[in-house]
From TrEMBL, chain A:
Keywords tagged on the record: Cell membrane, Membrane, Transmembrane, Transmembrane helix, Transport
Family: Belongs to the binding-protein-dependent transport system permease family. HisMQ subfamily.
Membrane topology label: Multi-pass membrane protein
InterPro entries: AA_ABC_transptr_permease_3TM, ArtM/GltK/GlnP/TcyL/YhdX-like, MetI-like, MetI-like_sf
UniProt entry tagged with the keyword Nucleotide-binding: no
Domain of life per record: Bacteria
GO molecular function, one term: transmembrane transporter activity
Organism taxonomic ancestry: Bacteria, Pseudomonadati, Pseudomonadota, Alphaproteobacteria, Rhodobacterales
Protein name from the UniProt record: Inner membrane amino-acid ABC transporter permease protein YhdY
Spans through the membrane: 43-64, 109-128, 157-175, 182-203, 223-246, 258-282, 294-314, 351-376, 396-415
GO cellular component: ATP-binding cassette (ABC) transporter complex
Residues in ABC transmembrane type-1 domain copies: 223-419
Region (Disordered): 1-20
UniProtKB/TrEMBL annotation, chain B:
UniProt family annotation: Belongs to the bacterial solute-binding protein 3 family.
Membrane-spanning residues: none
SMART domains listed in its UniProt record: PBPb
Species assigned in the record: Tritonibacter multivorans
Assigned keywords, A-Z: Signal, Transport
Annotated Solute-binding protein family 3/N-terminal domain residues: 33-262
Pfam families found in the cross-reference section: SBP_bac_3
Protein's name according to its UniProt entry: General L-amino acid-binding periplasmic protein AapJ
Leader sequence residues: 1-21
Length: 431, 338
């Protein structure tokens, strides 16, 4: 009886899991689900693959056959012997002109390069607020350091500029708390007083024999000029834009009227018109010897232009805030500057980030418009001296414009990725 | 080469009265630097090389003026101007002299209130076509698409030429010379028209220059020369006679190689007057006696400058043609130095 068990078979261990069917796993599954899920998708996949093949089969030989070491387009053609290939030699021979312009002294390239590295350090605490706040001290000093590095000349000029700003900050700190208007006007007066006295104290010819050789604005160029214009104008236009946006919402008719007229006028005029005014018309209005630097004129015009756009973007942010926020600020007994600083602007600016970034990216690309007023920015360098003016490189289109596009793409994509990170970081709604 | 000057015309017409300040020579001397307006980049005429040094036919004129006035050919600030900004730059006083292959026309001389100080290159508008098109004369271009730089005198000449010959064309408007080349090579137009010198320079850079021909017709007169503001005749004289000195030097056989030797005195009184060993020509201009000698020493006489920048041995490869001395059948004819 015991020899025979009534149960025929009992498994003492579980069956090991078998691998999923081949078409339900790994690459095959992914392909089936994403590329070949039905016949329309399959067709599109095949068409896309063909297009990618066509593009790559042209592009890759062009890049791989590329010539990097010749000294003219004619030599490139000789080296290529009729094969299809790029002539990247123009980049290796003229990279310095594309990046720094053709007039910047070549033994001084370290100066703008250093200024660029410093810019990354200076801008970091502004962009990433988890970084130690002490780094902001460097950010405050940076404009003056960069000015001195790029233009060179006497160190007195940036020091005077810095002292003027410091005096303005001091006056505003002393009086602005109690009386905003007094502090504001006093700060401007103090800054100009320091600047005028300081400029008179700098002896004539102080730029001669200065430790860093003086480089006039006209000698700046290349991508450096785009970066300088972009960074300066964006950083100046955001505070100005906030002020304009608040001014437009003001209850004071004069301020409101001025802001509205300014914004509507500037937005109604093409940037290129403003640049022409900056380059040729302003010299009619200034006295002949008061030669305001062309770079400064362009910065002023571009800043005003983008400030008007930033103002409208921020106005959108302000309008999007529920009225309750303003009322809450009032009911807490906050005065106008406090309410704006503590409650309204932090929320309005957060809403406005995508719009501001949009304006910033647009402005950065618009800096290439200065090429039409004979400033040799990256596009001006390519259009003028390299493509138009040199017998060696006349006709190298794709390589040069591709290089320019690549530089701009890197910067603009970086800005866009930063803004997305910032939006995620500032998100306070809980999912 | 002759971009729109509407902007210039507007501003200049309204404001020229205040801008024409006398005493450019004094300004230049006080500044110790000549501000010379040139092209932003045109092969052979004005362009910065790989080291950032300005080179070219127009640039050489600027350097000669600087040498004559300031004694140093490197004391020039080259201010690049586009076709749109060049006239305002000159009228507003931003530049002292404009040497930017600018065509001498009635309205620019009279209406825009400038003073052309001579001609350093006699040009004319031509047509370039691909050989495959099988066209041998511009008059066969009936119905052709034509690449043309907008707002230039070439655009107006083109319209005149086709109207005069009673044939039709379709313009393809283009902003710059390099874009025009690209469009032409890509087949966007049957023919490209601009100054014949520009066509030669353009064709020289093509992958296969033999596949393109420049048609024999020259449809316009384009005398290119340096210009200054109206109202400062002393300064205009200096620019005019510096250019004449370069031209006369070629006629008289004064070159950069022998100018030092000849300036110690020769048997030819005109050379002596030119180089300042006789007479007081420099003094009359408000300069010193050796002004012309210095101008010639910079890069030689007119012929040497021509050969170095745009002559047959350069990529531009232009023959002297109209720009030969009058003794050799050309139009260059410097008035006597006396």
């Amino acid at each position: 009886m015991s020899e025979q068990n009534s149960v025929a078979f009992v498994a003492t261990e579980s069956i090991p899991p078998s691998p999923p069917p081949a078409n339900q796993t790994g690459v095959v599954k992914w392909l089936r689900e994403n590329l070949f899920s039905n016949w329309q998708s399959s067709l599109l996949t095949l068409v896309s693959l063909y297009l990618i093949y066509v593009i790559l089969s042209t592009f890759l030989p062009w890049v791989l056959n590329g010539v990097w070491t010749t000294s003219s387009l004619t030599e490139c053609r000789e080296v290529l012997e009729g094969r299809f290939g790029a002539c990247f030699s123009v980049l290796t021979e003229r990279w310095n002109q594309l990046l720094f312009g053709f007039n910047y002294p070549s033994d001084q390239y370290w100066r703008p390069t250093l200024a660029f590295v410093f810019m990354l350090i200076a801008i970091a605490p502004v962009l990433f607020f988890d970084l130690p706040r002490k780094m902001l001290a460097f950010t405050v000093a940076y404009p003056f350091v960069a000015f001195w590095l790029i233009w060179g000349g006497t160190i007195m000029a940036p020091i005077v500029a810095f002292l003027g700003c410091a005096a303005a900050a001091f006056v505003f700190g002393a009086y602005g708390k109690n009386n905003f208007a007094l502090g504001f006007i006093g700060a401007i007066v103090a800054a100009f007083a320091v600047w005028i006295i300081g400029t008179m104290l700098i002896p004539d010819g102080a730029n001669e024999g200065a430790w860093l050789e003086h480089v006039p604005s006209r000698d700046l160029g290349g991508f450096m000029l785009n970066m300088m214009l972009g960074v300066t104008c964006v950083s100046l236009s955001i505070p100005l834009g906030i002020a304009l946006a608040l001014g437009r919402q003001s209850n004071m008719p004069l301020i409101k009227g001025m802001c509205v007229i300014f914004i509507e006028f500037v937005r109604g005029v093409p940037l290129i018109t403003l640049l022409f005014v900056a380059s040729v018309m302003l010299s009619y209005f200034f006295p002949p010897d008061a030669n305001v630097d062309l770079f400064v004129r362009v910065v002023i015009m571009m800043t005003l232009f983008s400030a008007a756009y930033v103002a409208e973007v921020i106005r959108g942010g302000l309008a999007a805030l529920p009225k309750g926020q303003y009322e809450a600020a009032d009911s807490l007994g906050l005065d106008y500057p406090q309410a704006m600083r503590l409650i309204i602007l932090p929320q309005a600016l957060k809403i406005s980030i995508p719009g501001i970034v949009n304006v910033a990216v647009g402005l950065f690309k618009d800096t290439t418009l200065v090429s039409v007023i004979s400033l040799f920015d990256l596009v001006g360098m390519i259009r003028g001296p390299i493509l138009g003016g040199s017998a060696e490189w006349n006709g190298v289109y794709w390589e040069l414009w591709g290089f320019a596009a690549l530089l701009f793409f890197v910067v603009c994509y970086g800005i866009s990725q930063y803004s997305q990170w910032l939006e995620r970081r500032l998100a306070t709604d809980h999912h | 080469m002759k971009k729109s000057y509407i902007l210039g015309a507007l501003t200049v017409a309204t404001l020229s009265a205040g801008a024409a300040a006398a005493g450019t020579l004094d300004d230049v001397k006080a500044r110790d630097k000549l501000q010379c307006g040139v092209n932003t980049g045109l092969v052979g005429f004005a362009s910065p090389d790989a080291n950032g040094e300005w080179q070219g036919f127009d640039v050489a004129v600027c350097r000669a003026i600087a040498a004559a006035v300031l004694g140093d050919s490197s004391k020039v600030e080259f201010i690049s101007t586009t076709g749109k900004t060049r006239f305002t730059a000159l009228a507003s006083g931003e530049i002292d002299v404009l040497a930017r292959n600018t065509t001498w026309t009635f309205s620019r001389d009279v209406d825009l209130k400038f003073e052309f100080t001579g001609v350093n290159y006699y040009d004319g508008q031509g047509f370039m076509v691909p050989k495959d098109l099988g066209v041998s004369s511009a008059k066969e271009l009936d119905g052709a698409t034509v690449c043309i730089q907008t707002g230039t005198t070439t655009e107006l000449n083109l319209a005149d030429f086709f109207r005069a010959n009673n044939i039709s064309y379709e313009p393809v408007p283009i902003e710059t010379d390099s874009e025009a080349q690209q469009q032409y090579l890509a087949g966007a137009c049957d023919t490209y028209t601009t100054d014949a010198s520009g066509l030669a320079a353009t064709r020289a850079t093509f992958d296969d220059p033999g596949a393109h021909v420049v048609l024999p017709e020259i449809v316009s007169k384009e005398p290119l020369g340096p210009l200054v503001r109206h109202g400062d005749a002393e300064w205009g004289d200096i620019v005019r006679w510096t250019l004449n000195a370069l031209i006369a030097a070629e006629e008289l056989g004064v070159t950069s190689a022998n100018v030092a030797e000849l300036s110690s005195g020769t048997g030819n009184p005109e050379i002596n007057r030119l180089l300042g060993t006789e007479g007081t020509l420099g003094e009359m201009l408000g300069l010193d006696a050796e002004w012309a000698k210095r101008a010639i020493m910079v890069s030689g006489n007119y012929g040497e400058i021509f050969a170095k920048n745009i002559g047959v041995d350069t990529p531009v490869g232009l023959a002297r043609g109209l720009n030969a001395q009058w003794t050799e059948g050309g139009l260059l004819y410097a008035p006597p130095f006396r």
